[in-house]
Design brief:
Layout: E1 9-15, H1 20-23, H2 37-52, E2 59-63, H3 66-76, E3 82-85, H4 122-137, E4 144-149, H5 151-160, E5 178-184, E6 187-194
Parallel strand pairs: 1-4, 2-3, 2-4
Antiparallel strand pairs: 1-5, 5-6
C-alpha cells in the first residue's frame, strides 16, 4: 500500500487596506467604509508580494464587506478571482458601529462588552472566525490560500494561535499586513507577519 504523506497547507491572512473610517478613528465593524486613495495603492503593493516571492496562490477569499473585498480584488483580482464570506467579517460592534474609538473605555480584546449592545462577544467572534478559516483550509486543493479580513479579526486570530506558534507577534495588524500560517490537522501556527513597504506612498497618516 502506498503511504500518503500529509502536506502542510499555508494561509495568508491579510488585513484590509486603509479606509476613510481608519483616518477618522471610527469603529467599522459590520458597517463599511471605502478605501482611501492611499489604501488602494497599499492593496496593489501588497499583491506584488505574492508575485515577487513567486507564491502560487490557488484560492482567495475575503469578507463580504466592501473594504476587504476591494482590497482582495486590487491585490490579486487580475490573476485570481475571490469568494466573499460573511464569516470573515470584522467584529460586530453593535450600537458602537461607526462611533469614535478615541479614549474608548474598554481596551482590545473587548471580551463580552459588545454583546450587551447588540454586537458579538469575543467568544462568538472567535468561534465564527476559527470555523470559517478551518472550513476554508479543509477544502480540496487549498494549499496556498489568501484570506482578507479586518484588523481586530487578524489580531485576535494571531493571539489565539500563540501557544502553538514559533513566532509571537505582539502588535496590532497594520493595514495590508499579511500574517503567514501553516495549517496541519486543524491547527494553525503563525510563521510571521509580512508588512509590505509603503514608503513610496509618503508618510503614513495617523489612524487606527
Amino acid at each position: 500500500m502506498k503511504r500518503v504523506i500529509a502536506v502542510t497547507k499555508r494561509l495568508y491572512l491579510m488585513r484590509h487596506a486603509e479606509t476613510q473610517f481608519n483616518l477618522r478613528y471610527l469603529f467599522q465593524g459590520w458597517c463599511d467604509s471605502s478605501l482611501t486613495q492611499r489604501g488602494r495603492a497599499q492593496a496593489r503593493i501588497a499583491g506584488q508580494y505574492f508575485v515577487e516571492e513567486q507564491i502560487p496562490l490557488d484560492h482567495a477569499y475575503s469578507s463580504d464587506l466592501r473594504r476587504a473585498s476591494e482590497t482582495c480584488e486590487l491585490a490579486v483580482g487580475e490573476v485570481l478571482p475571490h469568494d466573499q464570506l460573511a464569516g470573515l467579517r470584522e467584529w460586530n460592534f453593535g450600537a458602537f458601529e461607526g462611533t469614535s474609538g478615541v479614549n474608548f473605555p474598554v481596551q482590545f480584546p473587548y471580551g463580552d462588552f459588545f454583546g450587551a449592545f447588540g454586537g458579538e462577544t469575543q467568544e462568538e467572534l472567535e468561534a465564527r472566525v476559527i470555523a470559517t478559516l478551518q472550513d476554508i483550509m479543509e477544502r480540496p486543493a487549498h494549499s496556498n490560500v489568501l484570506a482578507v479580513s479586518s484588523g481586530d479579526v487578524c489580531t485576535l486570530f494571531c493571539n489565539l494561535q500563540a501557544d502553538h506558534s514559533p513566532v509571537q507577534i505582539d502588535k496590532r495588524a497594520p493595514n495590508c499586513g499579511i500574517y503567514v500560517y501553516d495549517y496541519d490537522e486543524g491547527i494553525f501556527s503563525c510563521q510571521g507577519l509580512i508588512e509590505p513597504d509603503f514608503s513610496s506612498l509618503g508618510p503614513a497618516p495617523d489612524h487606527i
